Amino acid sequence: MTMNLVLQGPGVPAAIMEGIAWLAHPARVTVLPSQALRCEEVAATPDVVEAVQAAALVARVDATFIEAGRTLADFSLVAMDMDSTLITIECIDEIADMQGLKAQVSEITESAMRGELDFAASLTRRVALLAGLEASSLERVCEERLRLSPGADTMLAAVKAAGLTTLLVSGGFTFFTDRLKTRLGLDYTHANVLEVEDGRLTGRVIGGIVDAEEKMRTVERVCAELGVDTRRAIVMGDGANDLKMMGVAGLSVAFRAKPVVRAQADVALNFSGLDGVLAVLG
What we know:
Oligomer: single chain
Largest sheet: 7 strands, mixed
Strand order of the largest sheet: 8-7-6-5-9-10-11
Shape: elongated
Distance between the termini: 17 Å
Strand content: 15-25%
């Protein structure tokens, strides 16, 4: 199998990336419009991969080995996690901040994302701490703190132009996914529903929890609706609860992700924006 190596690092001098490139003994090196480098016909042996990845990490460069010839045209769906993937924040942590409980909730969130806690149980614990908070606080989080991750707009514009369907599937909340669907023109969203009574959060969610299994099932359902195999999906995430849906995808992308996720993903974007996937796919 012929492999390419794509190197990209915002602000990294070309000479440094070229030095990393030659560790893979490429037949050709092409500078891409995004200032990334595509190294063609590389020697992707374990020793070479280890050397390239080590040098790239020190230089703050993302290095991706990928089968030659893969493009966006190979895919039909882009499925994205929301918190800390499509957007820069963990919404539940910012909601908890309105209760003065951000540190406590963030600690549970981090443990869950590292895979140390069962996601559903951890979400139930975290949501319970929000009981009594005015529902209007969600709007404050949306207006004051919710920001798209770097490169999100560019990535979404490119995948839509290529005719791909978009799915936002989140262990977070519909309050935010619904707004992002409207704002970004997404095709599908799926998330947890916070229960509200008399204008305040009850500390409970309505219906089943969107955990790792449900995220995977959602990708499978949408692919079935589109009439395509899940290998036609690109799946992006950052936490352990994204691993199952990433596992059924044709291309898994770890974005600023936890180590357990980076280790299992096809593409790890530690320094580039979400649009880094465009360079990987030509």
